[in-house]
Each structure stands twice: as structure tokens, then as C-alpha cells.
Input
Amino acid sequence: MNTNSNNQAENLAKPVLTTVFLSNYFPYGLKAKNENRSCKIITINGFYYSNSEIMLNSIELNGGISSKEIKLILKPLSDLIDNILEDGNDENYELYLQLSELLNTNDCTHFVKSLVDNKYYAVDVRLWNDIEEWLNKNHFDWKFNLIEKGLAISIHDVE
Output
């Protein structure tokens, strides 16, 4: 049995962190975890092409750390609706209020639940760019479910 081909098959089966997953967060101080340390991503370099996708070859983190094995640090969308008043987390409540205001409503719970469940929700198309920017700026895992795929970790799992 050829172990080299088995390793290649395993590597192809693993989810890969591509630039498309990162690009939304770059203007907003994206953070990643590498070897039990948190670092702010400064630049990305060394792209290569595989199966018509741009893949990360190297990520330069502050402190001179470079690694292929990083995990983004993101907030789960459920933070906006789960126990926002019960856990005493004023930051989540403030974010909930900001999103509600952006949506021109008093209650954004249904909107957030629809994002979590990947369902449609009617939103004024003129607001959508602002909503996307707000979700990215606040580092929510809303578009690609990166936490679920193992390409990101929840902010609650970072020490």
C-alpha cells in the first residue's frame, strides 16, 4: 500500500482555508490562532493554484510567525440571540441593538435565525451591503460556516 498516495488523499479531503474565506474580514483586523497563540493577520502571501482555486501557501502573522495551519477566530452568529440578557454580556447586547437599528427594526432575532439556518429572509437590498459589512467588521461567522467546517474557532474557545 502506498502511504504517500494515502496522505495526498487525506490532504485533499480536508477543508482548506482559501482567500475567499478571509477577504471579507481583512479590513477589520482579522485574528487567527496558531500554536496556542492569537495573532493579528497582517498580510497574506505565497498563493498557489490547485483545482482552479487560489489556496493559501503562507500567512504572515505579526511577530514573524508563518504557518499553513491557522484557524480564524470568529464569533458565532448565535451570540446575537442566545442568552444576550441572561449571561450579562453587554457587548453582545450592544451588537444586537446595532444590528436591529441597521435593519430598521426593534427585533433582529428572526433575521439572525435565518442566517444561522441558511434560510431566506426579506431584507431591503439597499441595506444588504451595510449588513454584510457590519457582520464582517464584527467578525461574525455568517457566510461560510467556517467554525462548523473546522477552519475557524469560536471566540469563546480562545483563552
User: Anything to note?
Assistant: The two ends are 42 Å apart (CA to CA). Residues 76-142 form one domain. Confidence is low (pLDDT under 50) at residues 47-54. The longest strand covers residues 37-45.
